[in-house]
Design goal:
The complex is a heterodimer. By secondary structure, chain A is mainly beta. Chain A has helices at 3-16, 153-162, 273-276, and strands at residues 20-36, 44-46, 48-60, 65-76, 87-99, 106-114, 121-131, 136-145, 166-175, 179-188, 206-218, 221-230, 247-258, 262-272, 293-304, 309-320, 324-336, 342-352, 370-381, 384-395, 407-420, 423-433, 440-451. Chain A has a 22-stranded antiparallel beta barrel. In chain A, a hairpin with a 6-residue loop joins strand 6 (106-114) and strand 7. The two termini of chain A are 28 Å apart. Chain B is an all-alpha fold. Helices cover 41% and strands 0% of the residues of chain B. Classes of the chains: A mainly beta, B mainly alpha. At the A-B interface, strand 1, strand 3, strand 4, strand 5 and strand 6 of A face helix 3, helix 5, helix 7 and helix 8 of B. Chain A: This is Outer membrane porin, OprD family. Chain A: Residues 1-20 form the signal peptide. Chain A: Keywords: Signal. Chain B: It comes from Geothrix oryzae.
């Protein structure tokens, strides 16, 4: 969306708040500071000031109409802290919502995130949903996709030409004592790369069909997941190349609750990149035009002890066809006082990446196998709050990716004061060491405020 | 003349279709837009209070919304099938804490005073993303969008 359209949308939506009988405004103002003195880089001082702002205005003339806005802006008070320059901002969402009294029906219009189809999309458009008789529900959305900048302006032109519209729909059927099945469709872009004045080899459009299921015959057991099929017309594969898989994704999670305290969970996921993604705008990151695939499986066991202790053990295996295998295993213990005024946690994980492949002949390759430990605590006493958080990653020595380091760590201490019901001030200091900065100290001041009546705004 | 007839026919068909669609809409009352009771701090277990019989009311399997450690890390299917259940307690901005699309800083920095929340990219993710992004680039998609954001330009060209 162009900047002037942002302004028009914001002005229109902001003016709507004047009609709201219940307006909630919540925000966070943050000021950070850190200095950079890294060999090979100019010395710099960074002091970005960031403002997050959200508005929920309900009862806009009618009990059912509401407005929801959230965005952020940043300006650098000294050197530019990002590649965008000394200032930046973004509207994460801004939409009007009408909720009907029946059938859980709703209409949204504006910028929003939709996840009722095969994936997770950010759109400028309209979204509708309603329950139907007999356990059915239907939802649909349409509009323009929200674009991110690409590196090459010509790519950006191609990208925005092809992704001219996005729309999707989902039909669900919920069956008593069985679960739910949904069928969804997504089309992102209607113009093909071949329609460009200068035909592009990269097709950014997607057309996908998804089937999602929930099977929960008893409250102690459920299986959730989805399979997504690629329906797009792709250029034919090279002669002799194997047929491309039309299944973009399988992703299934099963969960079993035992005796109210134990939860066993398992997940399996497989994604074929050529079918899952569309064309890349950063070829150095993703090359979906290559035949590549990710497969992962894992599980966890959680013990929710009655004494407010929670213990989790987890394992995950990841396999990527072009790079190899990674295994991650570990656990975490959490403890909270009965009033939740004190919480603490300790965790440890082992990541074995020894079976990853040599991919860049120009780089001396070492795996990023490591051990990770984390400990944290937070407490609230009256108007004061405090927290400590430390994380350590211990790698093999002599890894060329780590500038001679073995231990990479970060510790953060925070102290907060709830000045009033609506205002909280806090300050953080963090210290750490990593391959980019051997001694990294950062300061952060934060003011969080909330005015209005919303029960859930910003939570 | 013929064109008018066609338009009238299409108009009548659309009108009938709309009436049929309206008759299909559930007569059930919508459930509360916000949770009627204030919940205590921490991670709630919906099934402690809600009947988990999916045959009743809105047919919602509340037990699968229990905020277990696993649910906190992996709730995409619930959000996909039942986003309006999440909305009874959480504003959209809660999702935006992690799934913002484009954000000015890592969630773990913005929420550094909340170590209890499972924010992504804690610690030195600059090193770790070489591994995580390489093994499963599709995991970046949920938060950063299908084509990533322009922060990637720093190194990836």
């Amino acid at each position: 969306m162009k900047r002037r359209n942002h302004v028009v949308l914001l002005a229109t939506l902001m003016s709507a708040t004047a009609w709201g009988q219940e307006v909630s405004l919540y925000g966070t103002t943050m000021a950070q500071m850190w200095k950079q003195d890294t060999p090979g880089f100019d010395k710099a001082t960074f002091t970005p000031a960031t403002q997050y702002l959200g508005i929920d205005a309900t009862k806009l003339g009618t009990d059912n109409l509401s407005l929801h806005l959230f965005g952020w802006g940043r300006t650098d008070l000294s050197d530019a802290s990002t590649l965008e320059g000394k200032s930046g901002g973004y509207l994460n969402y801004g939409y009007l919502q009408y909720r009907f009294d029946r059938a859980n029906a709703e209409i949204k219009a504006g910028r929003m995130t939709v996840n009722q189809s095969t994936g997770f999309e950010q759109i400028d458009g309209v979204s509708v949903r309603t329950d139907l008789r007999g356990g059915f529900s239907v939802s649909a959305f349409g509009g323009r996709p929200v674009y991110y900048k690409t590196v090459d302006p010509r790519n950006q032109t191609d990208y925005e030409f092809q992704r001219d519209a996005i729309f999707g729909t989902r039909l669900g059927w919920r069956m008593p004592k069985v679960g739910e099945i949904g069928v969804s469709f997504l089309q992102d872009g209607t113009k093909a790369a071949k329609d460009l004045d200068i035909p592009s080899p990269i097709d950014y459009t997607r057309k996908q069909l998804g089937v999602d299921v929930l099977i929960t015959p008893a409250t102690i057991f459920d299986v959730r997941g989805r399979t997504v099929f690629d329906l797009a017309d792709h250029a034919p594969a090279a002669p002799g190349a194997p047929d491309r898989n039309k299944i973009a994704e399988h992703d299934y999670t099963a969960s079993l609750k035992l005796g109210g305290q134990f939860v066993l969970s398992g997940n399996f996921a497989e994604r074929n990149f050529f079918a899952y993604f569309a064309g890349t705008n950063l070829p150095s990151l993703f090359r979906q035009d290559e035949k590549d695939m990710f497969r992962g499986f894992g599980g966890s066991i959680t013990w929710n002890a009655p004494s407010t202790v929670q213990i989790v053990a987890d394992y995950r295996h990841m396999h990527r066809e072009s790079f190899g295998d990674v295994n991650r295993a570990g656990g975490e213990i959490r403890w909270a006082s009965s009033e939740k005024t004190f919480q603490a946690g300790v965790g440890a994980h082992w990541v074995n990446a020894a079976n990853t492949k040599f991919v860049d002949p120009a780089t001396p390759y070492r795996s990023l196998s490591h051990k990770e430990a984390r400990a944290w605590m937070m407490t609230v006493k009256g108007k004061f709050s405090a927290s400590l958080d430390g994380i350590l990653q211990r790698y093999d020595s002599g890894n060329p990716y780590l500038a001679g380091m073995k231990n990479v760590y970060e510790a953060v201490a925070s102290l907060g004061f709830q000045a009033t019901t609506n205002l909280k001030m806090s300050g953080d200091v963090s210290y750490g060491t990593n391959p980019v900065a051997k001694h990294e100290t950062r300061g952060l001041l934060r003011a969080e405020y909330r005015f209005g009546f919303a029960k859930k705004g910003g939570r | 003349m013929a064109r008018n007839t066609v338009f009238k026919f299409i108009g009548v068909a659309l009108g009938l279709g709309f009436l049929m669609a309206c008759s299909l809409i559930s007569p059930e009352t919508s459930y509360a837009p916000t949770h009627p009771q204030e919940l205590s701090a921490g991670r709630p277990m919906c099934s402690e209070c809600h009947s988990t019989d999916v045959a009743k009311g809105a047919l919602k399997p509340y037990a699968s919304f229990d905020h277990t450690a696993n649910f906190v890390k992996d709730h995409r299917f619930q959000a996909n099938q039942d986003a309006n259940t999440c909305a009874s307690c959480h504003a959209q901005s809660f999702c935006t804490d992690c799934h913002g699309g484009k954000v000015p800083m890592k969630p773990s920095i913005r929420l550094s005073d909340r170590p209890d929340r499972d924010t992504p990219h804690r610690g030195d993710f600059m090193t770790l993303h070489r591994l995580e992004g390489k093994m499963d680039p599709s995991s970046c998609y949920t938060c950063h969008g299908r084509a990533n954001n322009d922060k990637c330009k720093a190194c990836h060209r």
